Amino acid sequence: MEGKGLEISITPEHLFDVVGIPVTNTLIASLCATAVLVAFVFVARRKLAFASPRGIQNLVELVVESALGMMEEVLGDRKLAQKVFPFITTVFLFVLTANWMEFLPGVGSITFAEGAHAVPLLRSVNTDLNVTLALAAVAVVLVQVMGVTVVGGWKYAKKFINLKSPIGFFIGFVELLSETTRLISFSFRLFGNIFAGEVLLLVMSYFLPVLLPVPFMLFEVMVGLIQATIFAALMLIFVKVAVAHEEEH
Q1: DSSP 22
Q2: 122 burial via Cβ count (<10 Å: 0-12, 13-18, 19+)
Q3: Are the CB atoms for 229 and 63 separated by under 8 Å?
Q4: What residues are paired with 118 via a beta bridge?
Q5: How far is CA 182 from CA 17, 113, 137, in A?
Q6: Higher pLDDT, 236 or 152
Q7: Does pTM top 0.85 for this prediction?
C-alpha cells in the first residue's frame, strides 16, 4: 500500500552498510532515541542540588520515588525493587521515547529515492520487529536472572525440570514453554500496536492531510505511553512471579 510516495512496509528499510553490518532506518532512529535519553540525563545531572532541589529535579525525584514505591508494593521487597528499578525504568523510558519520536518533524517525512520508492531516513523504532524482539529478550533475561538470584539456581531450575512424576515433568515443560512464548507475546504486542498506529496516521494523512490526523496523533501519543507502561508493568509482574516461586512451592 502506498501513500504520498511512501510504501507501508512491515520490515525496516536498509539504508547502507558499515563494515559489512546493515544499517536500517529504525536502527538510526533507535540511536537517536538513545541519544535523547543520554542528553536528558546529562542535562538533569548538571544541576543536581542536594540541599534544596527545585524545578525539573523535583519532578524527576517525584516520578522516581513514585515508581520505586509502586515496584516495592508489587514485589514486597525494597531491596529487590531497587535492583530491578534501573532495568525496568530504562526499558520504559526507551520504549516511550521511541514511540513519541514518531511525531517529531522529519521522522518518516525525510526521504530519499530508492528506485521507484521513497525510503524514509528515520522510521518509528518499535515498528521494527527486530527491536521489539530484542526488548523482549532483555525482559525475559531479567526475569530469569532475578529468579535465580532470589530463589537460587537449583531451586529455580526445578520449576522447569521436575522428574518426580509424569505430571510434574509435563508441568515443568509447560512452564518452560510459557517462558519462551513470552518473547513472542512481548514483542508482537508492542510491534503490532505501534505499527498499526503508524499505518493509521499515514492513511488518515492521505485522505485529509491538514486536520483529520490531529485527533489520531493525540490518540497515538496516549497509545505510546500506555504501551510503554504495559511493557514495564509486565516485566515487573513476571519478576514477581519468578521470585515468588519458592514461597508458592
Answers
A1: E
A2: buried
A3: no
A4: 6, 113
A5: 32, 38, 9
A6: 236
A7: no
